[in-house]
Amino acid sequence: MFKKILIANRGEIACRIIKTARKMGIATVAVYSDADRHALHVKMADEAVHIGPAQASQSYIDIDRIMTAIRESGADAVHPGYGFLSENRRFAEALAAEGVTFIGPPAAAIEAMGDKITSKKIADEAGVSTVPGHMGLITDAEDAVRIAAQIGYPVMIKASAGGGGKGMRIAWNDDDARAGFQSSKNEAAASFGDDRIFIEKFVTSPRHIEIQLLADSHGKCVYLHERECSIQRRNQKVIEEAPSPFLDPKTRAAMGEQAVRLAQAVGYVSAGTVEFIVDAARNFYFLEMNTRLQVEHPVTELISGIDLVEQMIRVAAGEPLAFAQQDLALNGWAIESRVYAEDPYRGFLPSTGRLTRYQPPEEQQAGPLAQAGNWVPAVPDAAPPEAATGIRNDTGVYEGGEISVFYDPMIAKLCSWAPSREQAIETMRGALNAFEIDGIGHNIPFLSAVMDHPKFIAGDISTGFIAEEYPTGFHGTELPERELHRIAAAASAMYRVTEIRRSRISGRLGNHERKVGSDWVVCIGDQEFETRIDADRAGSTVTVAGRALRVVSDWVPGRSLARMTVEGRPLVMKVDRISAGFRLRTSGADLAVHVRTPRAARLARLMPVIEKPDQSKLLLCPMPGLVQSIAVSEGDTVEEGQPLATIEAMKMENILRAETRGVVKRIAAEPGQSLKVDDIIMEFA
Description:
The protein is an alpha+beta fold. The strands form nine sheets. The chain has an eight-stranded antiparallel β-sheet with strand order 14-13-10-11-12-15-22-20, with helices on both faces. The longest helix is centred in the last third of the chain and has 23 residues, at 481-503. The radius of gyration is 27 Å and the shape is globular.
């Protein structure tokens, strides 16, 4: 077995690998850029080596710098994680030449499957179902238009070396094909150093379902069932689950067998994933093979009891797999929510800055992966105790740390496990409500909203779910009336506790407690609820809209998280104080809740409403980023939807378009300039 593993990566995946290596008694080496000098993976590793500037091209994907770190540390193996150099054939070859083991597949398999054009040809020859498309290279935008028209719209324009949703665009017409070709080409060159593009048919309303593989160097290859990855935004996965709520046993087996066939065709060794798109009739088509560990691997681990990182290390050390296909049974249900540094209220644009508060929910081990010791074959149909649920949080950040502009906006991967899908969703709801993040924008409100969405709960999803269900973006959740009653009852009980605390402050009212009333008016947005509290030692009974709701809680003023039971059901809310009330965040809703006496409520209704300043004549930067290009000049007349500027942030291009017809009066930014949120880019007459 290896003595020391260098992890050629950063963030949560580096931390994840360190945990397994530590469990196996293997020393670890972290590498870090200038931006990551104080990163969590650096703190966790046994030693760390600096590899260069913040830009990934000069640090994490610079093969020479990584090789120097390997020599300095004396590592005898390298785990690449995902992204960066994980699917780089030259890196695998450089390690082999150095006599260092690459914890991943052979270089030939990386090359064959890493090129999407080549991989589709191999898949077709291996008898794997593939999507119709043009497998040759596309020379220019007009060539893209011609080929797209031949295939038939809609089409998917994709980077041959792509992955992680980068370099991908859907084209519905000729104009889309022209614009998508250039954007995909630019993004591919920036992300992968390879701007080759190909085009294939876009299957409408598809599901994205992938098969997890493990193969050893002794000829054995197994599939660990599937993951449903259909909740996506801009081709980037947001929520994954295992197994899929859509597949039947016959389709699952057919997909698994085809995935194994493809792996064997290229002599695959290590963990890998074969991705498919699946239509409404359960016809499935090969999409690509990822020759690395996937971001969403935890959900497979949670239902199988197999530590995939451990198996990758053991296979790389020459050990055979200790299990066969018949040993692998589905056990329970797991869901992963990707917590991103992005603002869902501003079109999910990236957010950067310092984490002034970062308190994830407490992890709870349950299910197959919670078994002590090494992996034990799961017993088919063996159900764990109904009450057993689990929470796992894979992260690479900490409170006080910084989210920079240089890397992907991943904060954490929050996972839930339970015996059933319904229980896994409920466990995820509670975990998201208890996840406290402040200082930057994040997508937890959106993730919470999805967990409550009827179509998601029913398993009626596709890769178009977000675009279809949130066509104008995410603007928060409108909670049903009954839930607002519960929140009003909770807020009344909390405010009463706050007022009692205030009444006991030394020196007030001659050191005598002032009387705290029982009647309140709770304002949530533009709705008012009259409440009456009857408190006892065990809790409070709050009457709201004629309903008596029992509220039990140990919340005290100053605590940022309120865990309550209201009407016999749990209610978890993030709490901030505001004037005469609270800011309460729960289930995707962000509520300003004012609690007033009846007299104060009457007076508040007379207060004038403050109007927001008119910014309709300004194009403001919606995220921290770099101005890549300005598409117009001063004096130009622009039409609705016309591109105005392109901002690059976290390795993604964001095209800003005109919202209405107008004339450009002034351009305040220029290409190459770094902008903050709400910096003025241009002004209109």
